[in-house]
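BUG: 3D viewer hangs when loading the predicted structure for this chain

Environment: internal workstation, default settings.
Expected: structure renders.
Actual: progress bar stalls at 90%.

Input used:
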Amino acid sequence: MSSIEQWIERISKPRTEIGNHSVCPYARSARYTVIETDTIDVDTFKEQVTVYVLPRLLTAEQLLDMCVELNQKNPDLVFLPDHWSSTSNINGVGTGNGEQNIILAQNRYDLEVARTQLSRGTYYDHWDFDYLEEILSL
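Structure tokens produced before the viewer hung:
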């Protein structure tokens, strides 16, 4: 099992620390493809989620800057960064993959529908306000 597959498995498991929700309730069932690359070509986007694995030497700031630029140029998609050294968490439960620099690409409409469904329950109750704002702003 690849490190990406292990990460997807980890963020799919319900955790008591976050109200028996998983970090990403849709991760296990999502169709995804993994592309190792030095740059992102949006024409390679496919499935529900494309996981772009980028060089490890990129800084967290560079990865975020890439996402900001990609989001501005491609309003129908959402690009979310995950730097290998990220310590992001939801109520103490790590959200990052911890091994590779990745950018997750998803269809914006589909993501907004999923976020709306999750907001109707208790999913976001355990999120730190700043982290929630950071994720929702991209």
